[in-house]
Amino acid sequence: MSVVAQNLHWGVRRKTIVSDVSLTVAPGETLGLIGPNGSGKSSLLRLLAGLRKPLSGRVDINGRDIARVPRRALSQQVAFVQQNAATDTNVSVRDVVRLGRTPHRSALSGWSEADEAAVVAALDCVDMTARRAQAWQTLSGGERQRVHIARALAQTPQVMFLDEPTNHLDIHHQIEILRMVRDLDLTSIVALHDLNLAAMFCNRIVVLDAGSLRACGTPDAVLTKDMLRDVFRVAADVSTRPGDARPHIRFRAA
Amino acid sequence: MTVADEPESGAGRLALFLGLSLIVMVFAVAVATAIGDYNIGLKTVFLSITNELGLTGADIAPIEQSVVWNLRLSRALVAALAGAGLAICGAILQALLRNALAEPFVLGVSAGASTGAVCVIVLGVGAGGLSLSLGAFAGAFAAFALVALLSNGATSGPNHTILAGVAASQLFNALTSYIVTTSGNAQQARDVMFWLLGSFGGVRWPDFQLLLIVVCLSLTICILMARSLDAFTFGDEDAASLGVPVGRIRLMLFAVTALMTATIVSMVGAIGFVGLVVPHAARYVVGPMHLRLMPACAVVGAVFMVVADIVSRVIATQQTVPIGVVTALVGVPFFAIILYRARPQV
Q1: Of A130, A155, A180, which one is at a domain's C-terminal end?
Q2: ipTM of this complex > 0.90?
Q3: Do the domain assignments include residue A82?
Q4: 3-class secondary structure per residue, chain B
Q5: Which of B241, B246, B285, B294 is the best residue to mutate to test the A interface, defined by the most A CB atoms within 10 Å of its own CB?
Q6: A72 in the same domain as A161
Q7: Domain interval for residue A146
Q8: CB nearest to B242's CB, from A86, A88, A99
Q9: Mutating which of B232, B234, B253 best tests the A interface, going by the most A Cβ atoms within 10 A?
Q10: pLDDT lower than 70: segments of chain B
Q11: What pLDDT does B222 receive?
Q12: What is the pLDDT of residue B86?
């Protein structure tokens, strides 16, 4: 499913947070969203997922204006993984993943075979099947993140938004999760802090700076020395190999 | 295609639990009807009730039959419904605000309802039974509005909302005390203060009928919205991303809470801790998912309140201890356990 945003504006009071952003994500693509702290990554992600209403502009998912799609119908196609969503409730891994079926169930409908199949597949995908009965509170940060992704997968979405899914994870789990997201057969839009990870796993990268879209393209086209200096205010060497669109960034200490 | 209810969920366990609780409740109501200043045998109680229902024509002293039917049975049943209602309110607020301490008493809704009711009683705003309920209702909504205002529509985070509730609670309790001490006479002040701590003394059948409608309606709404409440586990935005119309559900359930709290407070005063204690106890047995939690809260709350009412009548000879005192005596130690369990894990 494609995601098309046109001239999105958003802000609170007089502060503009997202300014005139337009972008197109092709079906099946993994799009990386990068930018410094406070550049509007999370806000843009929420606008695209329909969790916030833009002040102006529109978002079309699969050719339909999401402002006109009811919340529940939208959630049957679009999943959103927040960063570090927590709870004090004593729920099991399975309970959490089952929540992903919420948009597919009416108030009193029973638990269908389709629901069960989606939950089983989602747990399997993040390799948490063996721990499905474990209490949420006893999971590590990486396991919680995987369970959140499983819950999003249980929604059987065609588009998935992830807000910094690799935060607080060790490098093994960072790579694990992004590889999984890349290999999923759906359109995903991922906000990321780690530029090398974005280069490694995204088909295209969007750079946000102070709410505006600064660059958009393949990793080698976007991740340039000049961009890193201007937007991220760091000195870095960018090494590319011929025929490889995935550059490697080496930051300089001084 | 439906696979036998919900897997790994213990639907049978819930049914067993609800069944046992209902049996306990019937027993508790029978005991509550039998004992008092003047004890009546369980057999007489049973026959009095069946007589009134027109099922039997047993020879029972009219005074006993009247005491059983007109005073004690209505009282016990109102207690059961009030307990059920307050427990449901607690479960709703704990889910929506994602805070283990949320309940109408803590959030100042009970205090607001009390202020509204006291305005009617002491200041004589309006007249008649209906206006007392309306006063309580207006007060409960005023308290909700104040809490919503102070906490940005309850979107500023769970702790913020609880703090706003504490402020509202203080304000409305102060208003109530001010109205009572400046406008009422000594006897009125004593009556009102007694009522504020909770008393089932004055309730009759019309109260039961009204409360039955309100509680059944609210429970039905809660069960229909149980899935949506589950979706609030990880917060509002998460619920929205699961397809829940967050604003609408929130407004609807806050209204249900205000309606139930106001109805209960206008009849029996502000009874604390039931809404806090019962949902936590019920979660231990049936788990955190609301389709099961709501009916469990209703029956556990009902049993708890009927038993508390019995205790309040027998704990001191020749005296009825306010029901709020009994629920608090049980509730505070439980509160302490929750705080202890919720302490940061190191």
Answers
A1: A155
A2: no
A3: no
A4: CECCCCCCCCHHHHHHHHHHHHHHHHHHHHHHHHCCCCCCCHHHHHHHHHHHCCCCCCCCCHHHHHHHHHHHHHHHHHHHHHHHHHHHHHHHHHHHHCCCCCCCCCCCHHHHHHHHHHHHHHHCCCCCHHHHHHHHHHHHHHHHHHHHHHCCCCCCCHHHHHHHHHHHHHHHHHHHHHHHHHHCCHHHHHHHHHHHCCCCCCCCHHHHHHHHHHHHHHHHHHHHCHHHHHHHHHCHHHHHHCCCCHHHHHHHHHHHHHHHHHHHHHHHCCCCCHHHHHHHHHHHHHCCCHHHHHHHHHHHHHHHHHHHHHHHHHCCCCCCCCHHHHHHHHHHHHHHHHHHHCCCCC
A5: B241
A6: yes
A7: 89-155
A8: A99
A9: B234
A10: 1-10, 125-130, 153-157, 184, 338-339, 342-346
A11: 94
A12: 95
